[in-house]
Amino acid sequence: MNTNFIQKHYPLSNLDFRDLWDITSHFIGSHPALEHVVYSAETREGPIVSDESDLSIILQTIAKCDDPINSIRVRLTPESGGQEMPSSELTYFSREGVHFKPGLTLTSSASTKLSVYRFESKLFEHFEDLRETEPNVKFGDPCEILAAVVDIRGFSHFSERPNIESPYLCGVMGAFYQIIQRSFAKYSPEMIKFMGDGVLAVWQTTFEDRQFAVDAALDGCLHLNRRYQRLRQSPHFTEGTPDSLGVGISIGLGSKLPFDGDYIGRPINVATRLCGVCPGGKVFVDQAVPNLDPSIEKRETTVEVKTYGKYYLWSIPAA
Q: pTM for this one?
């Protein structure tokens, strides 16, 4: 079974050293190869125990300490392991800091999904905090966003052909994602989200940089089709690729999600709908997008868009 780097956080509070001792025992039970265990502890004044394996020394030192313990770190390694061997750390912080959250954090290069599951089963059994945690509600930050949605036309039909297997599709999508990133490198979006055969790019804009974002998004999208057609000629794609791309662009007010840097809002919905009805080789731009380069050939048109009805936009041929 593959070993992966794993980092997980558990919102546990009011743990003391004996709690960490018990948790460490549970962890060793699902990771028996990690026999060598050392503990470190800090107060506001600094370390009081560093990489100590003798539990009696640790307990005596903590008992004599008048200051509250801010953090306890447990490092687990194989008995004969060196610095390069897989290891794990359990770190507990009693309060929030600049670079850490209160609670217990597991960081491991010696764990698998299954071994962590076995450890967590014990953890959830013993600590009610993990079973009954309330959601931490944070509302989004309103902001102006420019959204571009790009989709490979006919991808679903292409992927259903009997001679097309999933590794080949991964090659097509991986190459497609790379040309997206190169096309938007001029003025990079705050977010690029890959969604199978489609991509969402979002620029968070203000009056100061709106024009730069619009120019970068439009220039990148207009040249995508040329780059994609060149990609289709690659000798790697012996079974061919879907023919073309569709693009939708919109701007307006949205919000940034506070917990993962994602965005939601009407401009993303509109760009998605415009992309959905955009013919291959075209770029559909919401007429709300300001200051399009006057030298760009464009035609005013309307389309029926789900939820929004008749929508006015610019239809621009891709380069």
A: 0.71
